[in-house]
Structures are given as structure tokens and as C-alpha cells.
């Protein structure tokens, strides 16, 4: 196994989690969610998405959520955007970081973005030019598409290569429907370094088939810079049938700390946040396990 | 990542799963459970345990379960035993394989075995002498004890070394309470080869803190011969507070096949078995994810 080191965990629950929950939090609760993550040591929170409110009603209060989360040192308030209009809204709202989406399959691109893959690449060029903060690109369906099936690894790497030169800060590989397995993760994370030198590498795993945590370990061993996670393991995608939760922030942190990988996060605070969120979402158990099983007083590195 | 190869998956659900369920299957259902696993390609099923019926009432029908599962080529009917009396009962019942338990912590040993660690080692010597089929040793709490906390890795390897020369066929490392993380798995599986040369290596992971599948991958990469799993991810331990399910047979198989590791198992049949078991246990969703998410028609190796 590769040597332990430090990995950034990006809390994406306020965006990728809440967009798929049947219960909608209030704007104030969404802001509190982000605040709680920052207080637990998270350095970057995807607080909302600036998408059309008819497409994702749960994100209709994007401007108000950002306004409710005070800026500050070590508090990167990131937002998802799908097009130039989203960048303009996010810029006006004053976010600190942007994440856009490039889908690795045409069918899903049309459903999620209402654009072709090529049109999205062109739009990303315009988005970078319009943005006043760093912009990253998430390659969705990097491990498979719910409509087209297998996505060739080379297609993913070719797309990464096409956007790498546009001035983006980061490329994220997203297993949108939770079909990936660790060997493919290793190859793609390795491959990214070749086609996108100097661009930060990030990954986004759903635990739909119980592969999410093994994939996260593979990504860490391959040298990933950042991993997405959602408090309690909430999440899914409104446009991906049967997609389920993200890896849980607290479970991922337990796993990484146990391996001696530093995250800077306070596990006890993360577990409290999961309990808080579970209450706000109606009380049914969330997919994350640590808030039920508890931390364990072993020889875990902090 | 290490090269893919073949790993044996041992179905332990009829023993380690059912012993902790509030609903008890009938003897005929238990036998059908084992038969279904064999029909899906599993070569070895832990069909029951020969323990005191007052200690584990769900296993009181051990003899009848074994009698209900016909012997045959490629159908290894294994059973758990904790002492010489168990070996005698299992021998009379005609099982094909035995698995006994050596606990790596004194407190848990007293609660689970009603014996000290040293007394268990001595008993294992007597059990090997009395057995007419291969006997393996599971080292329980190899990654941590719910009562004593951290268990030093060297203690686990020392215990393995003590029993390795007794004529046993296999040593299994069990994460009884689901606290292990992949680096420790790698070190212990590696270490076993040194202290128990020629003895098969097996591992047993619970997914209590969502580390089970990542641990399984680490064990495979370290060269493990066999991995335990339970249909639907059922399970727990009656003597380990808050222990939850085993890794699910179908989810583990999906993960390994996706990595090109052969198991000989039929994933579609495993998913059907999980649905069958869920119905028999009352219909509430089992922890395994694949039976909900479905197999995925990607480029997965068989």
C-alpha cells in the first residue's frame, strides 16, 4: 500500500445530497449544514448549485444559501454550475469556488446538461473566462452511464485532456451511478496525471453498490488530492435512475484516519453533524454507518 | 494494484448471519439457504455452529440442518465449533470442514468461549486430534476488541504462530466488530504468511463502519485465499455489542469481478438469493446494496 498522506475532503452534501432528498431543508438549515461542516474542519463545502430552479427545485434558493454562509479564511464556499448563466449567478452571489460538469456519455449529457459533450467543452471555455474564482470540472459518468453502459477509459482521459488546457484548477472523476471498482479508479487517477499535468485531481464516489469506500482508498493510493463526501452518506442524482448516496463524510474520515491519512477533520463533530442532519431529514437512519456504530477507541491516527 | 486472480468466497450467512437475526428460519429454510448458495457457485458454506443451544438458540438445530444439506462434490458443508464437544457433535453429523475460534483478547475470549486464550489454544490441539475433516482457526477480534480496544498486531501474529503448527488447514483473520482499516489488513495478511507458512489464509470482515469492502480489497491485494461473506450482508455477533452485518456475498462478488478477480460465483443467482433471504427474514431491506441497485451491464469480468 502507498504511504499515507493528507487528502482534502470536500463536503458536497448540501448540493449533491439535498438535491435528491424528498424532504427539503429550509434555507437557514442549508446554511447551518455548511457552517457545521466548516466547524468540523472541512475546508471546502459545495453549498448549492446554480441551476434552473425548474430542473432542481431543491436548489432554487441558491443565492440565499450563499448569502447565509459567511465567508472567511479556510471556508471555501463552492457551488455547482452547469453553464455560463450559472457562473454569472454564482459570481453575483459571491461564491469562492466553482465546480462544473462534463458528462462522459452523450445520452446522460443531454439529460443532465441539455447539451452535447462537445457543446459542454465549448461552454466550459466560456465559463472559465467569465469566472472570477477557480473553476473545476467534474467528469460525470466517468465509470459508467445508466443509459449507455460502459464508458471507455480512454474517452474519459481524452475529455480530461481537452479541458485541462482551458485554465481550470481541478478535474474530478465522478462515479455518478456507483458502478466503479478500484482497479479502474487507480488507472483513471493515474491517467489524469498524464493528460492533465498540474491540474488538481479529485474524485466523487457513490456507494450504490458498496464499492464507494474501496474506490476512495484506491484513489488515495493513486495520489488523489481531494475526495467528495456527504454527511450521513445522503445523496443521489435526479437524472440518474437508482443512483444512491455519496460516501459518508464521517465514514470516509474514519477509514482514512485509520490508514494514517490526514484530513484535518474532527470525527466526533462529523458524527454529531450526521445526527443533526438525520433529525432535519425526518429521523430515518441515513446510509452512513459511523453515527450508529460509533467511533472506536483504537489506535487510530488523527 | 496487485494482479487479479481467483479468491474463494465462503458463505457464512447461515451461521454468522442467522445467529444474530431476530427472526429465526426454519430448519428446512436454513438448509435451502445453504443449497441456494451452492447452486450459485459457492464451494463452501458455513451451514451452522455446534455450540451450546442455550448460548445461541438460533443454532439449536445444527444436526438437523447438516442432515438437510446433501453432501456432494464441490459442496463443502462447514460448521463452526468452539470446543471438543462441538467437534464431536459435528463429526457425528458428518460435516466436511470445521472452523473454530481463537479470540485475540482475553475479555472477549471469556465472553464468547468461556475460556482463556491459552486454554483455547490447548483445546484447539485436542480439536484437531479429534476431527476427521480439515479444521481452520478464526482469530476473532483480530482488528480490535469491543471491551479491550486496540489489539496489538504482534499479538495476533503470535497467536497465529502458536496454532499454525497444530495441524490446522487455514487461519482466518476476523474483524468481529468492524473497526479494521486496509493498511492493517495488508500488514496482518502479509504477516500471516510469515508466521504460518503453508496454512491457507482467510479473512472475515464486517461492514459495521463501512470499511468492510475496502478491507476485502486490501486482503485480496495481499494474497488472501478466501473471504467470508453473507447473503444480503446479514449478521452480527451476539456477544459483540453493536456489531453489524458481514460484507454481502453479492456486493463482494460484484466488486471482485469488477477488478477481474475470479470467484466462480453467478452474480445473478446471488442477487436472487438475497431477495429470497430478505423475504424469509420479514421483507425489510437487508444491508447489501446490489439487490436494490442491480448488477450493471458494464465491462465486468465474469
Cα distance, first to last residue of chain A? 19 Å
Shape of chain A: globular
Counting helices, strands and paired strands, the structural category of chain A is alpha/beta
The largest sheet of chain A, given as strand count, sense and whether it forms a barrel, is: 8 strands, parallel
- Average predicted local confidence, pLDDT of chain A: 93
Tally of extended strands of chain A?
A: 8
Work out the helix count of chain A: 12
CATH topology of chain A: TIM Barrel
The low-pLDDT segments of chain A are: none
Largest interface, C-beta within 8 A: A-B, 47 and 46 residues
Biggest sheet strand line-up of chain A: 1-8-7-6-5-4-3-2
Radius of gyration of chain A, CA atoms, in whole angstroms: 17 Å
Helix content of chain A: 40-55%
CATH superfamily of chain A: Aldolase class I
Domains of chain A (count): 1
The CATH architecture of chain A can be named as Alpha-Beta Barrel
The string of secondary-structure elements of chain A, in order, is EHHEHEHEHHEHEHEHEHHH
GO molecular function (chains A, B): lyase activity
Family (chains A, B): Belongs to the HMG-CoA lyase family.
Protein name (chains A, B): Hydroxymethylglutaryl-CoA lyase
InterPro entries (chains A, B): Aldolase_TIM, HMGL, PYR_CT
Amino acid at each position: 500500500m502507498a504511504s499515507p498522506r493528507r487528502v482534502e475532503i470536500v463536503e458536497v452534501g448540501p448540493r449533491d445530497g439535498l438535491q435528491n432528498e424528498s424532504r427539503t431543508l429550509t434555507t437557514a438549515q442549508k446554511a447551518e449544514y455548511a457552517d457545521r461542516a466548516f466547524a468540523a474542519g472541512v475546508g471546502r463545502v459545495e453549498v448549492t448549485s446554480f441551476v434552473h430552479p425548474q430542473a432542481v427545485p431543491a436548489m432554487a434558493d441558491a443565492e440565499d444559501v450563499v448569502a447565509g454562509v459567511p465567508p472567511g479564511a479556510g471556508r471555501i464556499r463552492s457551488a455547482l454550475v452547469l453553464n455560463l448563466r450559472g457562473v454569472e449567478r454564482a459570481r453575483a452571489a459571491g461564491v469562492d469556488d466553482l465546480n462544473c460538469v462534463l458528462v462522459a456519455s452523450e445520452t446522460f449529457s443531454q439529460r443532465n446538461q441539455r447539451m452535447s459533450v462537445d457543446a459542454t467543452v465549448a461552454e466550459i471555455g466560456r465559463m472559465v473566462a467569465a469566472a472570477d474564482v477557480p473553476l473545476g470540472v467534474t467528469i460525470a459518468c466517468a465509470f459508467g452511464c445508466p443509459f449507455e453502459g460502459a464508458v471507455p477509459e480512454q474517452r474519459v482521459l481524452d475529455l480530461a485532456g481537452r479541458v485541462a488546457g482551458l485554465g481550470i484548477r481541478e478535474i474530478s472523476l465522478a462515479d455518478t451511478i456507483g458502478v466503479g471498482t478500484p482497479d479502474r479508479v487507480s488507472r483513471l487517477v493515474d491517467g489524469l496525471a498524464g493528460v492533465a499535468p498540474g491540474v488538481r485531481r479529485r474524485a466523487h464516489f457513490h456507494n450504490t453498490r458498496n464499492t464507494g469506500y474501496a474506490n476512495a482508498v484506491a484513489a488515495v493510493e493513486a495520489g488523489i488530492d481531494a475526495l467528495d463526501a456527504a454527511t450521513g452518506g445522503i445523496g443521489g442524482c435526479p437524472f440518474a435512475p437508482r443512483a444512491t448516496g455519496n460516501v459518508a463524510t464521517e465514514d470516509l474520515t474514519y477509514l482514512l484516519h485509520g490508514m494514517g491519512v490526514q484530513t484535518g477533520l474532527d470525527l466526533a463533530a462529523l458524527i454529531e453533524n450526521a445526527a443533526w442532519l438525520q433529525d432535519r431529514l425526518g429521523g430515518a437512519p441515513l446510509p452512513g454507518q459511523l453515527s450508529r456504530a460509533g467511533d472506536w477507541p483504537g489506535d487510530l491516527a488523527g
